[in-house]
């Protein structure tokens, strides 16, 4: 049954093609009548089949579109599988060293030799005012992804690694999607340019230019994102945190004696450093101590002079009061003598 329907559909398509060719070429009336009869016969055959030919044609079209969609999906899958994986690698390293300056110099030199660069460098040299002089550094190092392991291993050999973390982000799908979208935008840009050449009115030209501006902006944005991805993929990131120490602490203790000896030596060193820091800070503070002593002496002198002045003033007032009382007594005695006489 299906084969009969296919034959009928084929006959109808051929009849329609013959009619179009005859009309375009201006064929004879006899040929037109013959082809018209053939077309009518095909239509009659279709009508006899209950009009299912159109349904079959529609179903065939849907099947073909579905097959094409599956083929496109398969092609996309093959393209994604053939595309190299786009991986962004990041490493966090926390290390300690007793050769702080030498390590930073070596990291800078090796980074350049490997073809990378230092994106950020923060170095803390300690604070003498607080007595804490241990130094530290925080570096953001970018090295080629194929030399990442080599760089990390070299740093680990020269230091004591206290923490190490690695992260890998797969951005293959995002990268392929951006590239596909960019190609579509370039095709749209070519179409708009072709339309611009054929445009005649000012309104059309302005509208097409506005669309061109938007498309070009999207293209630039996607190219910028792709360049960012390329940089992150080609150059892995190493966050390197360095702490300066005086001596490496052993990873494993062999016994209680080693632990006691290590702790005793460490505490002796701390006591010695504390005494040394005290005298250093004392010597540094001598100018401040002298200034404070002079200021204190001046204040004491002012207070002493003020007290002396107060005492003298009180003595003078007391003397004047005694003289007044003596004078009053003499006057009183003289008055009494006159009265008795």
UniProtKB/TrEMBL annotation:
Residues 62-78, 324-333 have a biased composition (Basic and acidic residues). PROSITE patterns: PROKAR_LIPOPROTEIN (PS51257). InterPro entries: DUF4349. Keywords: Membrane, Signal, Transmembrane, Transmembrane helix. Residues 85-298 form the DUF4349 domain. The keyword S-adenosyl-L-methionine does not apply. Residues 62-81, 317-341 are annotated as: Disordered. Residues 1-22 form the signal peptide. It holds the Pfam family DUF4349. The chain crosses the membrane at residues 278-307. This is DUF4349 domain-containing protein. It comes from Candidatus Eisenbergiella merdigallinarum.
């Amino acid at each position: 049954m299906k084969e009969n329907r296919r034959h009928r559909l084929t006959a109808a398509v051929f009849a329609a093609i013959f009619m179009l060719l005859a009309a375009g070429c201006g064929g004879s009336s006899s040929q037109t009548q013959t082809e018209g009869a053939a077309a009518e016969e095909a239509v009659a055959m279709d009508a006899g089949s209950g009009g299912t030919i159109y349904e079959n044609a529609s179903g065939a079209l849907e099947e073909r579109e579905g097959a094409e969609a599956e083929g496109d999906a398969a092609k996309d899958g093959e393209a994604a599988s053939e595309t190299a994986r786009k991986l962004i690698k990041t490493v966090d390293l926390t290390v300690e060293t007793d050769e702080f300056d030498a390590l930073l110099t070596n990291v800078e030199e090796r980074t350049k030799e490997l073809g990378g660069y230092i994106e950020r460098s923060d170095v803390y040299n300690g604070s003498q005012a607080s007595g804490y002089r241990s130094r530290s550094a925080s570096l953001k190092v970018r090295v080629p992804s194929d030399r990442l392991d080599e760089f990390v291993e070299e740093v680990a050999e020269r230091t004591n690694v206290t923490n190490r973390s690695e992260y890998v982000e797969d951005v293959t799908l995002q990268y392929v999607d951006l590239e596909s979208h960019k190609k579509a935008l370039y095709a749209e840009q070519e179409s708009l340019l072709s339309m611009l050449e054929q445009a005649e009115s000012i309104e059309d030209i302005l509208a097409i230019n506005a669309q061109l501006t938007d498309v070009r902006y999207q293209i630039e944005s996607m190219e910028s994102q792709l360049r960012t991805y390329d940089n992150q993929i080609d150059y892995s990131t190493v966050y390197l945190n360095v702490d300066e120490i005086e001596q490496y602490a052993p990873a494993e203790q062999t016994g209680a004696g080693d632990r006691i000896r290590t702790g005793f030596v460490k505490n002796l060193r701390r006591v010695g450093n504390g005494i040394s820091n005290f005298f250093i800070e004392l010597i540094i503070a001598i100018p401040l101590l002298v200034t404070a002593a002079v200021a204190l002496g001046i204040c004491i002198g002012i207070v002493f002079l003020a007290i002396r002045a107060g005492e003298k003033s009180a003595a003078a007032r007391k003397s004047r009061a005694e003289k007044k009382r003596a004078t009053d007594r003499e006057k009183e005695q003289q008055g009494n003598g006159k009265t008795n006489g």
